[in-house]
Write a structure and sequence with these properties.
Blueprint (H helix, E strand, L loop, with lengths): L1 E3 L3 H14 L3 E6 L4 E5 L2 H18 L11
Antiparallel strand pairs: 1-3, 2-3
Helix pairs in contact: 1-2
Length: 70
């Protein structure tokens, strides 16, 4: 799963929420470009991503995009 954020501080929050929400590992994180790659089982990764999106929307009041799978 690849996630993108605009600011390095958001990347740290996103990573923290993801690894606490599900059994996933950080495959790659670049806080300067805003890239996060999570590795793990499909269900675990989806749970982590859904929780990140929920957290940013409900707690931080960000506008968020839909989650797309391909």
């Amino acid at each position: 799963e690849i996630c993108a954020c605009l600011v390095g501080s958001e990347m740290c929050i996103e990573t923290d929420v993801a690894v606490k929400a599900a059994h996933v590992e950080v495959g790659f994180m670049d806080r300067f470009c805003g890239t996060l790659i999570l590795t793990g089982g499909f269900t675990e990764v989806m749970t982590a991503v859904e929780e990140v999106v929920r957290f940013f929307h409900e707690t931080l009041k960000f506008d968020v995009c839909e989650i797309h799978r391909s």
